[in-house]
Amino acid sequence: MRFSHLLGSIAITLSAFAVCARAQATITATAKGTFTVPPEKSNPVTIPKFDKPPVIDGKLDDEVWHKAVVLKDFYQIQPGDNIAPSKPTEVLLGYDPKFLYIAFKATDEPDKVRATVAKRDNIFQDDYVGFMLDTFNDKRKAFEVFFNPLGIQGDGIITEGRGEDFSIDLLMESKGLVHETGFDVEIAIPFKSLRFEAGKRKRLGAHFFRRIKRFENELDSWMPM
């Protein structure tokens, strides 16, 4: 699979911190042909500005999260081919002048969730959620940031032709909680931790994922592949 197929796009108007998320095209190329992207993923989605920051505790009970834009209806891309996932996942997005806020709501049976108190970058035997962020939108390099159900981080850079490098550690805050309907992960990333080109209508490539280990290492994606 080519690196460029991993990325949708996010457009950010930095002067006003107005953020939009959208798919790159109505018809997306996948490893096995083409796939028609539904309207809600091919049209821009505005990410709202939060008037106060959420507490990063994994609970998602702050009132401000009700203002977030929600990405849902993921696709199972492994082992299935753009089919319905075994379990639903939602991503919540918001921002303020200093931080990008991201939250994952992962539905599951709590006693079957794989989560350990792992070291940073050593989370990939657990279930996990995360995203890629191509801050220059050149489809050559992207931050990849993942979290196990306890919010422990695994972060690095992926470069086309070179693979992954997990020697970097982004400055960010995250917390996850396993509860009766699955698990939630709450994240705050300072904009100053992300290198990007400032200016109006600049686009950042992005994608969102979930891994469920017990279902043949299932990988779910917000966009089809």
List the helices and strands and how they pair.
Blueprint: E1 9-13, E2 18-22, E3 27-30, E4 33-36, H1 39-42, E5 45-47, E6 69-71, E7 75-78, E8 89-95, E9 99-107, E10 128-134, E11 141-147, E12 153-159, E13 163-165, E14 173-179, E15 182-190, E16 202-212, E17 218-221
Antiparallel strand pairs: 1-2, 1-16, 2-5, 3-4, 6-8, 7-17, 8-9, 9-15, 10-11, 10-16, 11-12, 12-13, 14-15, 16-17
Beginning-to-end CA distance, first to last residue? 9 Å
Order of helices and strands: EEEEHEEEEEEEEEEEEE
User: Mean of the pLDDT scores?
Assistant: 85
Radius of gyration: 16 Å
Q: Unreliable segments (pLDDT under 50, ≥5 consecutive)?
A: 11-25
Q: What CATH architecture do you see?
A: Sandwich
- Based on secondary structure, the structural category is mainly beta
Rough shape?
Answer: globular
Reported by name, the CATH topology is Immunoglobulin-like
Number of separate domains: 1
Q: How many alpha or pi helices?
A: 1
Secondary structure: number of strands: 17
Strand content: 35-45%
